[in-house]
Automatic annotation (TrEMBL):
Alphabetized InterPro entries for the sequence: Aminotrans_IV, Aminotrans_IV_CS, Aminotransferase-like, BCAT-like_C, BCAT-like_N, Class-IV_PLP-Dep_Aminotrnsfr, D_amino_transT
Co-factor(s): pyridoxal 5'-phosphate
Phylogenetic lineage: Bacteria, Bacillati, Bacillota, Bacilli, Bacillales
Cross-referenced PANTHER family: AMINO-ACID AMINOTRANSFERASE, D-ALANINE AMINOTRANSFERASE
Catalytic activity: D-alanine + 2-oxoglutarate = D-glutamate + pyruvate
Protein name, UniProt field: D-alanine aminotransferase
A Pfam family it matches: Aminotran_4
Length: 282
């Protein structure tokens, strides 16, 4: 298939990444994952907005206007005839002789985007998945969608080794987020999720869920909660671009609620599908 490399649609085989690309050497860059349903980008504006914000936070200037970037991504999806899947895109600070400080004068960022077919995880969304509590050892700027993911991948690996789908991270007593998702709990009919501060990535799926809650009078608080709160929650789910709304029915081997996806979780899943259908008709 085709990929975008520094603005050009080219064959993947023809892309060469320099060994002194700062993304490769330092993880000095940012990325996004965008869902494609029915050949259309879901929450495209929100993802592009977050990419620009991540760029601003670390001094990487995205080399295209927002609408030009959107057009390029849509072209890529059409070129590859992608129906259901994702776009992965990343921008590194660029190529420069290895030294920690930002290059002066500035260099051109390296831009890469490609598509990948990916089904919605419908079976797991129906049955629910297992979670493992893991200490959050990451840095203090988790609000940046940085290429540096060592803390995240170590957490996910721990979860996988325990046969769990996701690592649910906590800093001391406070639950923050999953290794590649946000975390919600339901207790006595009220939803809670960690506020969008430096300790979590403000997920686009999280934002869609908050909007759905508002429009449907479902009580939700952007308030942190504890390890004890999540262990005794009525319902738990995680949210992400690829996993949408994924019920967590077991945590550290203990059953949550009655061991099945909860009523509020299921209602939100249904409303989320309606959002997809509204935005990605075709
Ligand atoms: N938190 C982290 C650490 C993530 O990596 C992700 C996405 O992969 C999310 C949250 C969820 O964000 P989104 O809903 O935008 O995919």
């Amino acid at each position: 298939g085709k990929v975008i490399f520094n603005g050009e649609l080219v064959e993947r085989e023809n892309v060469k990444v320099d060994i002194e690309d700062r993304g490769y050497q330092f993880g000095d860059g940012i990325y996004e994952v965008i869902r494609v349903y029915n050949g259309e980008l879901f929450t495209k504006k929100e993802h592009v907005q977050r990419l620009y914000e991540s760029g601003e936070k670390i001094g990487i200037k995205i080399p295209y206007e927002k609408d030009v970037l959107c057009k390029k991504l849509e072209e890529l999806v059409q070129e590859n005839h992608l129906e259901t899947g994702i776009i992965y895109l990343q921008i590194s600070r660029g190529v420069s002789p290895r030294q920690h400080g930002y290059p002066t004068p500035e260099v051109e960022p390296t831009f890469v985007a490609y598509t990948k077919p990916m089904d919605r995880p419908e079976d797991l969304m129906k049955s629910g998945a297992k979670g493992l509590l893991v200490e959050d050892i990451r840095w203090l700027r988790c609000d940046i969608k940085s290429l540096n993911l060592l803390g995240n991948i170590m957490a996910k690996q721990k979860a996988a080794e325990s046969g769990c789908f996701e690592a649910i991270q906590h800093r001391g007593e406070t639950v923050t987020e999953g290794s590649s998702s946000n975390v919600f709990i339901v207790k006595d009919g009220i939803l809670k999720t960690h506020p969008a501060v430096n300790l979590i990535l403000n997920g686009i799926t999280r934002q869609v869920i908050l909007r759905i809650c508002k429009h449907n009078q479902i009580p939700v608080k952007e308030e942190s909660f504890t390890v004890d709160d999540i262990k005794t929650a009525d319902e738990i789910f995680i949210s992400s671009t690829t996993s949408e709304i994924m019920p967590i029915i077991q945590l550290d081997g203990s059953v949550i609620g009655n061991g099945e996806p909860g009523e509020i979780t299921k209602k939100l899943q249904k409303l989320f599908v309606e959002e997809i259908q509204k935005e990605c008709k075709n």
